Structure formats: structure tokens, C-alpha cells
Amino acid sequence: MRRYIIKRLLISIGTIFVVILLLFILLQLMPGSPFNDEKLNVDQRAALYEKYGLDQPLIIQFFKYVGNMLRGDFGVSYTISKNTPITQLLQTRLPISLSIGGEAVLLGAVIGLILGIVAAIWHGTVWDTIATIVSVIGVSVPSYVFALALAYVFGYQLNWFPLLYDMKIPLQSSVLPSIALCMFTIASIARFTRSEMLEVLGSDYILLAESKGVYGPKLIVRHVLRNALIPIVTVLAPLIVGLMTGSLVVEKIFSIPGIGSLLVTAIQSNDYNVVIVLSFIYSAMYIGIMLVVDILYGVIDPRIRLSKEGPHD
Amino acid sequence: MRNMANKLVALVLCLTLVLTVGSFATAESSGKVLKVQIETEVQSLDPQVATDGTSFEVIADFTDGLYQIDASGAAVPALAADTQVSEDGLTYTFKIRDDAYWSNGDPVTADDFVYGWQRACDPAFASEYAYMLTDIGLVKNSVAVNKGEMPVDQLGVKAIDDKTLEVQLESPVSFFASLMYFPTFYPVNRAFCEKCGDKFGTSPDTVLSNGAFILTSYEPAATSFTLEKNPKYFDAARVQLDGLNYQVIKDSQTALLSYQNGDLDVVTLSGDQVDLVQDDPEFTTMNAGYLWYITVNQADYPELANVNFRKALAAAYDRDAICASIIKDGSVPATFAVPEQLATGPDGKDFRETAPTYEGFDKDSAAKFYAAACEELGKKEFSITLLVEDDQIAQNIAAFIQQEWQNTLPGVTVELKVETKKQRIQDIQNGDYDACLTRWGPDYADPMTYLGMWITGNSNNYGLWSNTDYDTIIKRCVSGDLAMDPAGRWDALHQAEKIIMDNMVILPVYQKCNAMMVKSTVKNLECHSIALNRVYKDTTIE
Q: Between chain A and chain B, how many beta carbons pairs sit less than 8 Å apart?
């Protein structure tokens, strides 16, 4: 198992390296510059490029940047917050996105699982129909609409939660955004859980367990869920990354200082360093979570663990 | 099963209770604090680094320059207690107020201005606004200093003594005083800035205030920050507010909800919302200064180089309809090259007031010009690609103009090309387009900020138009005999605009205005279309 993890880690580092190189090339191809193209003439832009080292060949820029990254220097922002070190920009924003994303994942996974389990167990009844309707709505309605609806009803009309993200009351401010974000997750997890559980519920070993006298929560948790979880975990992994990295739309509506809107603004204004750092964070998180998921497979399903370890002497 | 479900429901209810109890919106306003919305984060609090309106507005809240902008948009002295201009208009001597202090107790000195202006020009600092000194302010040696050909201390700005600043120009600049309210020309306390190093302008501890307010909470790219009244401001008696709360809200619907909630006093709306609030007494529009127009590539296309053809195009679309039905935020139809409320002449009147009214939407005229053009060009079929950026409103306008052109001018086919803004700008700068819907924002309060664009070879002359008479007039105004003759210069600028409109060098569409909601308790909120979007020095809350 350990060799497997080390091998995966090395591949991951290589992948991130390639991702950053691709980004450098793509950013170079983007039109315009981080600076005010309309008002600056060619000489003035050239002077700015020189100041930030943007006039050097791509390869040199790339290696310089990676070298700096390894020393913890991620460069400065060119447009969003001029000359500010990106580590400083991320200091407040990253934890906020992560915490709201984390809440959304928790909410989404838990409620989704419960809905799916309910739908599967009482499959064919009104509970199943309700769960399905909720799933369809959650998947079809864009998070923008949810966010606005929540903001209007609970933020504005009822005044239960703040309309805008307030750093002084982070917990309350994160409720509405988390709910808006988790709807899609709830819907996806619920549907997956339902179909996986139905499949498992109809299998022989469950019949055996039931005939042995195992029933109720014990049956569900110890026997059914563990078998249904593999595909659910597979689906959950990319969803987690998507949520943690912040949703532009939800951040825009609640005015959350998060990294989702930071990335989009950076792309639109050619703020190269911010784009690279955030994309690096996304890739690292995605790769990291996939690695964790792979290890989890081994934990959840002993068959996978044994096959990974290979034949022992 | 039932048990588990019950436990879960109980848990959820408890959680909801805990979360809601502590969250009833609290408006912590001790005194008169104005709550203002801005649409993007502040890019920089360093006056020589900032380039955008939001940053300028906030910097000006806590910093004064030699001059400030008054309610009517004119430049009035701020830190300059006295201004002397030499006969030839090349030397300005400013005396700085004795009662001007930085928030750390240091007096504001002439050296603070020297330091600030040097930073703006220093090629090592690479300020994006160096052109305010090199191209517009025409400060002596600024071009050479900015290119690195001369050391920074050769810049034409010197501290004669602690309170006397002497500025030398390459050529007279009639509107020089009005440049002084631009943050690029603001003073920076040398010792403090050097001590802060890279951290200058990143937090309340790394900025100094000599203006109406003091920054009390801020961090880079913050979505909300606050200022409070500066009791040591030399004009503190005039400042009625106790503080300012800025909130970044990018979504106009959330902004309006926050306004109706009472969380904000001043918000900006989008065009779609105007229908809802039009009759509300708190609804208002303010001039945002941008002129939107269509530029046509006269170098590559003979039809676009034909004056009659251009005039036909310009007369064929209904600007009133565009403003009333598509944009809807109070933006104003434009049939001119120099926007309204941009500049006041030596006669005390707005440039537009004393200018003739140029032709606008007229289908018959369009048909006539078109017929003449077809004859001159010997063609009856034309195909134009109209380039537009990916903003929804811009696309809607372009689609409307496309329809108008195709319907009014038989034989003209128009194709729309949508690009990102950066790509669009790159294309027109490279001359890689037919026609493009573009905009220009004023850099300073003088018609030259627009008219200066269309001289031969200017990098912003996207139409690649050239006219020697025009070039001559502009040259005389900038560095020739008219530079020191305000009345003559003003007339010449009117003549210049007439040449532009007679030749339809650009096809104006509209002048941008912003739709806003301002609480009826808020008085004397000053909005401007240049430099400082809003000034709060005289604002009160009743």
C-alpha cells in the first residue's frame, strides 16, 4: 500500500508541474495584458512588462516562477490588488471559501445520503417520489436562482440571516451560501445513493443477512451502505473540489470574499500570477482528494485493498 | 428507523435555532456613518499605483492634493494655500497650507509632492499613470525621466522650501490646476512610505491621511472596509459625516435588496432594475463620463473611408430608442464627440452648451447620404462586421444597430462579432476590424481628452483617419499659440469638434450615466464623471 501511495504522490507532483506549464502557455496566448491596454501606449506597456519580468522568454519565466513557488513566493497580483503578494490575498479568502465549501459538502453529503437512503428503503412510496422531486429540482435549478431566492426570502424578507457576508459573524453569514451551494450535491448524492442502494438491496448477501435476523439501521449501515458507498465516494470527490474552490455565482450574490470570484476576475483581467496560483491550488486539491478517495476505496472495500497489495508470499 | 429519523429532525431544528438566534441583522451605526456600495474591490491605495475609479475615490477620501474638486466639477484649492503662474504659463509656484498635517503628526511639505510625482515618473517604479505627467501634465523632463534617460531628480518639480513647491512644464497646460485633484499628483510622506516598503497602502497602519477621513479597517481586496472622520483635517469643520462604510457588491439585485433593507445608503443599479424604481423619489442618475461610439476602419475599407457612407451609417440608428429601451439606466443619446458636463470653458459654460447640435437619427438623411455614397463608390452591396465585446448590453445595442443599418440602408449586410474586451481592444489597436462599438473615458476635465485622440498617427485614432487642418488646430492648442489663450483655445476646440462631426470620424451612440438609489436622508452627495466618482466632504445624513 505504501509503495502505491508514494508512486501516486510522485505522479501527482509531475501532473501539477505539467498543469502549471500548460497554464503559462495558455496565459501567454490570451489577448491583452494585465495593464490598461486602452490608455497605455506600446512603450509604456513594455516598461511595465520589464518591471514584472514578463518580457522574458516563456521558459525562463516558467522556471523562475516554479523556483519561487518552491520557496513560498507566489508573486504579486497585477490588477486585482496591485503589487499585493498573492499569499496575502489568499490568507483571508482561502479559509472562507474552504469553510463555506466544507459546510456545503457536509450538508450536501449528509442530507443527500439520508434522502437517498429514504428513497431506496421506502422505494415506490410517496417518500421516494418526494425525494426524487427534490433531486430533480436540485439538479435542474441553477445555484444562482437558489442563491437569489434564499437571499430574498431568508435574508431580506425574514431577516433571519445576513444578506451579505459579514466577516464579524462568519457562521451565520455562511448558512445561506452553503445551502445554495449544496443543493446540487444533495440532488446528485441522493440519486446515486438511491440507485446504488436499490441494487445492493436486491442482492443475495443482503437476503442472507436479513434471513440471519439483521434488520433496520444495523442492516443499512453495516451491510448495504458499505457496498453502495464506492460509486458514491467516486462521485463525491470531484463535487468536493468544486465546492471547496468556491462558486463564482454564489460568491457574487452574497459578496463573499472567496477564491471563486478571485479566479474569474483574474482571468478576465489577465492577472497571471493569481490565475496560476489558484489553478495550482485547484489541481493540488483535486489530485489530493482523488488520492484520498483511492485510499478510502481500500478502507471501504476490502476486495480492492487486497488486490492492490497484490499476492503476498 | 423512526427513532433515527426523529433524532435527526431534532438535531436539525436545534442547529437552526442556534444559528438564527445570534444573527438578527445589527446595524451598528454610532453616529452618522454613510454606507456606500462599490462594484469592485479597491485595486490599490497607493496614489501613484492606482488606476481605477474605485481606488481613486477611496484614496481621495483620506488624501487631499494641491487642489480638490468641488460640487460643480471645478478645481478649487485644497492643500495649495496660494498658486502663482508665470506669464508664459510654464512655471507654477504653490504654497502649501500651514495647517495641513499627516495623521502621524508630520506636516505636509513640498517634498511630499516631489516624492509622489517622482514615483509617478520613475521607470523603476513603473506607474501605469506616468502618462499623466509625461503626456497630459507635460511636466518638464518627465518624458526623459520616464524613459530612464535622465535621473529622477531632474523632474521639473522641486521643493524650494518646506512649504513652497515649484513645478515647471514643457508647454503651457491651461487645465493644469484641474489635474491636481487626480491621485497621481497627491503627496506621499517620504519617510513613512520608505519605512513601510512593500507594505505601503495595504492596511490602516501603512497609510497616512491628510484628508477628510482616516482609514480604520482595510486589507487588500477587502469586500468591506471603513473610514472615520479625521478630526485633524484642516477643513474638518465642513465634514458632517462621522464615517464611511464601504461594501463591495457585484450583483445589482443584492445591492438593491441591501438598500431596501437599510444596510446601504447609496447603491448603483443596472438598467433592468430601473423600470422597477423609476418613480421612486430616491432614484437618481449621475453622469459616468464614458462616451460610447462606433469607430470604423478607414484605412482598409474604401466604403468606410467615404464620408457620405459614414454619415449614412450614423444617421440610420435611433439613439433615443437605444437609451430608452435597451440601456434604460439614464444614459443619454450622443451626437457629439465631447460629452456633456466634461469641461467648462473660460465663459463659465459647459462645452456642449456653446456647441452646435449635430445631426442625429434621420432616416431621410441617411437615405440621401447612402445614395450619394453608392454613386461615389460605384457599389450597391456592402458587408460590414461590427465588433462588440461580450457584455450583454453592448451586444444588445450592436444587434439593434445591425437591424437599423440593414433596414434603412438596402444592400448593407452586417455581421456581429463578439469578443472579450481585451481581445476587442487588441483588435482595434492593431487595425484588425471593420467597425467596432467602443468607448472612451475622460482622463481629465478638458475636451482635449477626446479631441486629442484623432490626430494623425495617435495610437487611439482607431479609425486611422488623418486631416492636416485638424492636426494643426490640435497642435496650436497643445503647444502652439493658443495654449496660453483660453478663449481662443476654446473656440478652436469647438472648431475641431465640428471637423470631427462633419467628417463623422466616429459614430457616437450614447453617453453613459449610472442609475443610483440614494436615501432621501442623504444630502450633498457629490458625484463626478472624472477622477473621483464620489466626494463625501460635504455630505450629510439628516
A: 144
